């Protein structure tokens, strides 16, 4: 409209409605064009009250909707830990914050549609590797005008964040163009601290991972949740020491630390310096340096069977006892109340 357009034509369209729009424009009538749209009205959901979150004032619910990496092949076997790619939600009694938009965000969107809200939400993208964004255009809430979706993430040297997001919807070679009906707002952020509301603060940090990647620290109601989905910490006194120390300060005193644990310790040796961490280093980092209260190991390699993850989890829990650290492996559908 700012460029002089008279109307938007959204496919699939009704022929009669389309013809009425054209006749209206040619006639030069001042009548509202929206009156010609087929059965147009405010999104029916907008008149309904969202269901309660079930949380008490001051409580925070963290839900894991997708917890796996994506490898070269899609595994044939099922898994009790889940197969969806990264997405978690952090929810208060009134607000919703979503971290990453892998395939797990689709099921989250279905839940929000059932609950009819919250209708104003944030989505924080860590980076644009496919497994972290492939669910975004299929997020059900984007198809309803009653929702406001605020998407934030880092820009890259070659392209602005807004351009990256727009291409997902309108110029992606991987799926048909999508036109969101929700109010869509985009924010390019960097390594800094942002006030999302008087009592909710977000801090971002660049992580050690190929391409520009952000980790997030959310301080909500005085509770600290840190999400670092793709990150390589070495645990060694020389290699990448500066990054390890920087991340220690960023994660300090976390009530819940969610950190990349893509590999077992033995497999990590073969994949060092590729941007992912081994379980042993992560446990030591969380317990000895960060002094986190709870660690959730996240982003397990897609080829791992349940037996592999169970071995990693058992070994990690044994190590975590020395730090008085609660430790578990992420599972799709897992909920934590803080």
Structure class = alpha/beta
Give the N-terminus to C-terminus distance in angstroms.
46 Å
General form: globular
Summarize the helix and strand pattern as letters. Answer: HEEEHEEHEEEEEHEHHEHEE
Spatial strand order of the main sheet: 6-5-4-3-2-1-14
For the residues shown, what is the average pLDDT? Answer: 87
- Stretches where pLDDT is under 50 for at least 5 consecutive residues are 29-41
Rg, alpha carbons: 22 Å
Contiguous helical run count: 7
- Helix share, percent: 10-25%
Largest sheet: 7 strands, mixed
Portion of residues in beta strands equals: 15-25%
- Please report the total strand number as a whole number: 14
Give structural notes.
With 338 residues, this protein is an alpha/beta fold. Helix content is 23%, strand content 22%. Strands 6-5-4-3-2-1-14 form a seven-stranded mixed sheet. Strands 7-8-9-10-11-12-13 form a seven-stranded mixed sheet, covered by helices on one side. Strand 9 (214-220) and strand 10 form a beta hairpin. Helix 4 (241-251) packs across helix 6 (279-290) and helix 6 (279-290) runs parallel beside helix 7 (306-320). The longest helix has 15 residues, at 306-320. The chain is globular, with a radius of gyration of 22 Å. The N and C termini lie far apart (46 Å).
